[in-house]
């Protein structure tokens, strides 16, 4: 891959935020120039083998999930964490059949589990981590909650890198690019505590029956503005370096995943920054992790070559995301009166009569015994399945029988 060098890096305490980098070529010809870095594909492949890609899914069209799963490079392990309906049509069963079918055909390692499986809740309880459980002992709804389940499984498999890919992506090929972009970021990283966040080149929308290649959405523009303001009000220098506050598509080293806390639902992504600012930002003396503070935390922001087209979920969803995101900024240790007042003004009608609530925060997952967690799921959770990587070459005769019986149509 040929990727632009960051033109500037903002240093805020122990955190380094690199300015956006564009992908110049996904497959390059080993030509590095002073403005670009060439990353050979075998280096990327080395990273992919140590990578788990988590796909959170809730009632998405099965065709979209199918495309996403098929696009994730073979060397990575895929972890599907579903919160889809099980009554009426059992959507989770369709997802699991799809996973099992794809594994049969490809032999890629893939795990799947349902977030609301009572045994998942039990495994968390047993691990002494009740922070994402309802009173009834079942894991709450929410994308972040699903992501945490996936992270624990990735850790149990001994992966060094953990990334995320949404299941509602209409362009399968873009998902392949995302994963390669993540790997490229890690090839450039100097710190073992690093994160790669993707920025869409375009997010096309249909406007008056034409496709319009929009660059910015309202939520991300606003979230980024306030995250930047948190830094600017501390350094005294205005910055706009941060452009990936709401990046659902992101990846991090397992070492970084271990020291972060996680906000619930859709505020998980902007909270990564707030959590890092509050622990490692400028002027913070009592860093919670001395090793990370010393090594520094590195954040890459990569602009994808592909546009992003996903399922549109309406205004309520957008408002919830905006409220969730700004609430995390509002409650940051670094947020002063000026920024708070600005946020209240920005949220205006969305808040109605309540003030900005504090999102529930789930503490670091570092202490959880992940192999025990996975063993528990394996032995008792009805919805858990692990399909391991294999290189089974079927005999010709067997293959013929196999394809007679199974047809992709039965799955979709
Ligand atoms: P947006 O793309 O950020 O607007 O948000 P989406 O609604 O598309 O959600 C991102 C991804 O998370 C999609 O793949 C959703 O299906 C998935 N998702 C949403 N809510 C949940 C949840 O409660 N649990 C799980 N496991 N996944 C969820
Ligand atoms: Co989406």
Number of beta strands: 17
Number of domains: 1
Average pLDDT, rounded to a whole number, is 92
Largest pleated sheet: 13 strands, mixed
Percent range for helical residues?
40-55%
As for the CATH topology, it is: Spore Coat Polysaccharide Biosynthesis Protein SpsA, Chain A
CATH superfamily: Spore Coat Polysaccharide Biosynthesis Protein SpsA, Chain A
CATH class: Alpha Beta
Instruction: Measure the end-to-end span.
Output: 34 Å
In terms of structural class, how would the helical and strand content be classed?
alpha/beta
Radius of gyration: 21 Å
Task: Identify the CATH architecture.
Answer: Alpha-Beta Complex
User: Roughly what fraction of the amino acids lie in strands?
Assistant: 15-25%
Bound molecules: guanosine-5'-diphosphate, cobalt (II) ion
Number of helices: 15
Label the overall shape.
globular
Low-confidence stretches: none
Give a nutshell description of this structure.
The chain has 412 residues and is α/β, with parallel strands linked by helices.
Describe this entry's structure for a reader.
The chain has helices spanning about 40-50, 60-70, 90-105, 120-125, 145-155, 170-190, 220-235, 255-260, 270-280, 290-295, 315-330, 335-350, 370-380, 395-405, 410, and strands at about 1-5, 10, 15-20, 20-25, 35-40, 50-55, 75-80, 110-115, 160-165, 195-200, 205, 210-215, 250-255, 260-265, 295-305, 360, 385. With about 400 residues, the chain is α/β, with parallel strands linked by helices. It has a single domain, classed as Spore Coat Polysaccharide Biosynthesis Protein SpsA, Chain A (Alpha-Beta Complex). The strands form three sheets. Strands 1, 2, 3, 4, 5, 6, 7, 8, 9, 10, 13, 15 and 17 form a 13-stranded mixed beta sheet that branches. It is globular. The mean pLDDT is about 90. It binds guanosine-5'-diphosphate (GDP) and cobalt (II) ion. The site of cobalt (II) ion has 4 residues, from loops.
């Amino acid at each position: 891959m040929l990727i632009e060098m960051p033109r500037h890096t903002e240093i805020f305490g122990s955190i380094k935020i690199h300015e956006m980098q564009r992908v110049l070529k996904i497959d390059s010809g080993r030509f590095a120039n002073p403005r670009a870095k060439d990353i050979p594909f075998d280096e990327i492949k080395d990273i992919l083998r140590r990578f788990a890609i988590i796909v959170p899914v809730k009632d998405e069209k099965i065709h979209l999930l199918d495309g996403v799963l098929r696009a994730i490079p073979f060397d990575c392990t895929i972890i599907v964490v579903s919160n889809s309906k099980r009554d009426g049509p059992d959507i989770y069963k369709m997802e699991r059949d799809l996973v099992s079918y794809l594994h049969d055909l490809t032999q890629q390692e893939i795990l799947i589990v349902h977030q609301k499986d009572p045994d998942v809740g039990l495994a968390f309880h047993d691990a002494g981590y009740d922070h994402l459980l309802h009173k009834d002992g079942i894991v709450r709804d929410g994308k972040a909650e699903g992501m945490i389940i996936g992270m624990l499984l990735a850790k149990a498999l001994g992966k060094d890198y953990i990334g995320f890919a949404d299941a509602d992506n209409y362009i399968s090929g873009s998902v392949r690019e995302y994963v390669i972009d993540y790997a490229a970021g890690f090839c450039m990283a100097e710190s073992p505590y690093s994160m790669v966040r993707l920025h869409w080149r375009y997010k096309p929308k249909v406007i008056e029956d034409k496709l319009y290649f929009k660059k910015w959405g309202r939520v991300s523009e606003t979230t980024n503005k306030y995250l930047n303001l948190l830094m600017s009000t501390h350094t005294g220098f205005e910055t706009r370096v941060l452009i990936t506050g709401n990046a659902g598509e992101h990846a991090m080293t397992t070492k970084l995943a271990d020291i972060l806390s996680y906000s619930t639902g859709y505020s998980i992504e902007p909270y990564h920054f707030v959590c890092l600012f509050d622990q490692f930002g400028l002027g913070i003396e009592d860093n919670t992790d001395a090793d990370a503070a010393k090594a520094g935390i590195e954040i890459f922001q990569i602009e994808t070559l592909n546009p992003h087209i996903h399922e549109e979920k309406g205004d309520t969803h957008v408002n919830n995301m905006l409220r969730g995101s700004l609430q995390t900024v509002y409650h940051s240790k670094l947020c002063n009166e000026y920024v708070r007042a600005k946020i209240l003004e920005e949220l205006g009608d969305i808040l109605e009569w309540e003030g900005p609530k504090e999102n529930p925060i789930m503490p670091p997952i570092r202490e959880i015994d992940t192999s025990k967690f996975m063993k528990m799921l394996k032995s008792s959770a009805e919805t858990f399945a692990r399909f391991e990587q294999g290189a089974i070459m079927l005999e010709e005769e067997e293959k013929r029988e196999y394809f007679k019986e199974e047809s992709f149509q039965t799955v979709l």
